[in-house]
Amino acid sequence: MKKITLLLLGSLIAQGASAHVTLDQPKANVGAYYKLTFKIGHGCEGSATTTVKVSIPESVSGAKPMPKAGWKIDTTILPLTTPYNSHGKTISQDVREVTWTGGPLPDAYYDEFSIQVKLPDIVGKQYFKVTQLCEKGRMDWVEIPTDGQSAKGLKSPAPVLEIMGKPEAEHHH
Ligand SMILES: [Cu+2]
User: Fold this and answer.
1) Pairing of strands 160-164, 27-29
2) 125, 160 Cβ separation under 8 angstroms
3) Going by fewer Cβ within 10 Å, which terminus of the chain is more open, N or C?
4) Tens digit of pLDDT for each residue in 23-76?
5) Distance from the CA of 46 to the center of ligand 1, in angstroms?
6) CA of 36 to the centre of ligand 1 (A)
7) Would the pLDDT of 9 be above 90?
8) DSSP states of 90-134 as a string?
């Protein structure tokens, strides 16, 4: 009897740790065209998800959300503080927020939401704040660890992408 209880508890803890909103591929190379895929692991304390809103950091450019059956897409385009060049044109505004509305996605089910972006030439971590609205309640995945702090200790961490330098194999001598 005691053994069974412990096993159940163990699986509950494991589920909680992996069920946040996270990126399917949390590592990428500088300057890459990359598909951000956000995994929605659960609703808001049992309630079904009806909105997923993703904030795009200013240095991550050209965001293009992937349409999903049953979900409507809205984008927020804002002026950039630092315009950039793309295909010979100066880009002075960019998509800074993507919102999917629809579903509802029941708490018992799982889904993914994707955005194609161009990553900056900056090595390090980029955080994508996500707001999840449900039929009842909301979850704000917006916590960013301070220096030296582990993201594991945060209650609702923002999904993080680690941008790495180009691998040595890509250098041709
Ligand atoms: Cu979770």
Assistant:
1) parallel
2) yes
3) C
4) 999 999 999 999 999 999 999 999 999 999 999 999 999 999 999 999 999 999
5) 11
6) 19
7) no
8) EEEEEEEEEEEEEEEE-TT--EEEEEEEE--S--EEEE--EEEEE
Residue type, 83: P
Q: How far apart are CA 42 and CA 19, in angstroms?
A: 6
70 phi, psi to nearest 5 deg: 90, 0
Q: Tell me yes or no: is domain 20-166 CATH 2.40.30.10.
A: no
Amino acid at 102: G
AA identity, residue 1 = M
Averaged pLDDT for residues 78-93? 90
Tell me the domain boundaries of the chain: 20-166
Q: What is the dihedral of CA 80, 71, 118, 78, to 10 degrees?
A: 0
How far is the centre of ligand 1, averaged over its atoms, from the C-alpha of 167 (Å)?
A: 32
103-147 pLDDT per residue, tens: 999 999 999 999 999 999 999 999 999 999 999 999 999 999 987
Query: What are the tokens at 47?
Result: 């309630």
**For residues 40 and 52, is the Cβ–Cβ distance under 8 A?**
yes
Structure tokens at 14: 């494991």
DSSP-assigned beta bridge partners for residue 34: 117
Q: How far is the CA of 81 from the centre of ligand 1 (A)?
A: 34
Specify the pTM.
0.84
